[in-house]
C-alpha cells in the first residue's frame, strides 16, 4: 500500500511537471533542453578596427570561450573572453607588429597562454596571464621565426610550442621547463612553411611532445621519446599540404585534417591503432582552407574551414563539417559577404561546436556556437531613399522581432566600407532609424542585422540598393541671339525618391 501510494505520488508529480513545461512560456529553454533543441548563435566579439584575423579558441572549465586574435590595423595582439553574460576584449601586446599569427591554450587554472609572432622582427613571442597581469617575452629572436604555430600545455602547466624557421623551412620546437626556455630544430628538410603547422598540431602524450605538420607534399609526425626525436612520414600528396590540424581521441590516437593543394580539397587522416586511415572529406570547389579539427565525446570529428569559389579569393563562406557516425555533413555557418577563414574550432560539454572566425569584409572577430537562446528574426529590408547625394544625410528605418521578447540592437552596413556601432537597445518590433552620408558617387547596398541581449545575431537583411549619382545643371548665356553652354557645375538635388 505504501509503495503504491509512493508510485502514485511520483506519477502525479511527473504529470504536473510535464504540464508546467508545456504550459508555461517561461520554461521554453527547459523544454528545448529536454528535446536537445539548440540554435546557432552567431556573435560579433570585436568589431573596433581591423580585428578578427588569426584566431585561436579554447573553452575554460565553465565552458566559456576564450579567443586570441590579431588587430592588423594597429598590429596588436588581442584577447577576448566570454564571462557568461558578455564579451570582453583586451590588448595583450602592442609593441611592434605582433599577433600575426596566434595560438591559444589554457592551463589547469584557466589561465591563457598565447604563442604568436612579431611579424616585423620575425621573432617568436609568448604571453601568459598569471591571474592578475599579462607577462610578455621573446622566446626566439632568430629573425626568421614566422608561420602559423601551435601551443600545448603539459600536466605541469608548462607551455610547448611548434613553429617554423621561415628562412630555412625548418620545423622548430620550444618548451618551458618551469624556469627557462629550450629551443630545438626538429626537421631540416627545408619545406616547412607558413601554412605547415595547423591548429592544435602539437600535443603531449606520455610526457613527450608530438607534432603533426606539413612539409611540402608530405604529412609528417615528429615525436620525442627517451631516445630523442623521430620523424614519421604519414603520407605523400601530389600537392602542398596546408593547415595540418590535430585532435586526440579517447585512446590518445591522433585525428588530422588538412587542406590538400593538389585538388584544393579537405582531407582527413586518423590512426586506428594499427595503421593510418585516410579519406577525402569534401572535394567540390575550393574547400578546406584554414581548417581546424576537434573531437566530440564519441570521438567523431568536427571541422571548421572556409569554402570559396576559386583560388582568386573573391568570396568566402565559413563552413562547419562533421561526422555523425555514418556520413560527413557540411553546413554553412556564415555566407553573406567576404566571410570565413582564420578559424578555429572546439567542442563543448554538450558535444556542440564553438567556432571562431573572421568576417573579412570589415575585419570583425566572430564566434559561432550552439545555445538555447533564439536569435532575432532577419530585419526588414531598410526603408528609405534609393537615390541619395554626396555628403547629404539619408535616413533609413527597419525593425524585427525576437521570439524571446528581448531587447534588440541594430548594426547598419552602408556598403561603402563603414558600419554603425550597435544601436540600441530597442524593444522587439520597434521601428528604428539610422542616418548616413556617402563621400563618393556610386551604387551601394545597405543591409542591417540585429542582436539580442545574449549577443545572438540575426542574419543580414535583404539589401536595399541605392545610387549616389553625379548631378549637373547647365548654365547658358545668350550671345548674338543664340545660346551656348559655357559651364557645367555639380548641384544638390531638389527631391528624393523612396520605396
Provide the CATH superfamily of the largest domain.
Answer: Fucose-specific lectin
How many beta strands in the DSSP annotation? 37
> What kind of sheet is the major sheet?
4 strands, antiparallel
Euclidean distance between termini CA atoms = 75 Å
CATH architecture of the largest domain: 6 Propeller
Tell me the helix content: under 10%
Catalogue the unreliable spans: 1-35, 483-499
Please report the number of helical segments.
Answer: 2
What's the gyration radius in Å?
27 Å
Blueprint of the fold:
Layout: H1 2-23, H2 28-34, E1 39-46, E2 51-59, E3 65-71, E4 76-82, E5 87-93, E6 98-106, E7 112-118, E8 123-129, E9 134-140, E10 150-153, E11 159-165, E12 170-176, E13 181-187, E14 202-205, E15 208-215, E16 218-225, E17 228-236, E18 241-248, E19 254-260, E20 265-271, E21 276-282, E22 286-295, E23 301-308, E24 317-323, E25 328-334, E26 344-347, E27 353-359, E28 364-371, E29 383-384, E30 394-398, E31 408-413, E32 423-426, E33 432-436, E34 442-451, E35 464-468, E36 472-479, E37 482-490
Antiparallel strand pairs: 1-28, 2-3, 3-4, 4-5, 6-7, 7-8, 8-9, 10-11, 11-12, 12-13, 14-15, 15-16, 16-17, 18-19, 19-20, 20-21, 22-23, 23-24, 24-25, 26-27, 27-28, 29-30, 30-33, 31-32, 31-34, 34-35, 36-37
Explained architecture:
The chain is mainly beta and 499 residues long. It has 3 domains: 2-30; 41-371, Neuraminidase (6 Propeller), CATH 2.120.10; 372-499, Sandwich (Immunoglobulin-like). It has helices at residues 2-23, 28-34, and strands at 39-46, 51-59, 65-71, 76-82, 87-93, 98-106, 112-118, 123-129, 134-140, 150-153, 159-165, 170-176, 181-187, 202-205, 208-215, 218-225, 228-236, 241-248, 254-260, 265-271, 276-282, 286-295, 301-308, 317-323, 328-334, 344-347, 353-359, 364-371, 383-384, 394-398, 408-413, 423-426, 432-436, 442-451, 464-468, 472-479, 482-490. The chain has a 4-stranded antiparallel beta sheet, with no helix packed on it. A 4-stranded antiparallel beta sheet has the order 2-3-4-5, with no helix packed on it. Strands 6-7-8-9 form a 4-stranded antiparallel beta sheet, with no helix packed on it. A hairpin with a 5-residue loop joins strand 10 (150-153) and strand 11 (159-165). The longest helix has 22 residues, at 2-23. The model is unreliable at 1-35 and 483-499 (pLDDT under 50).
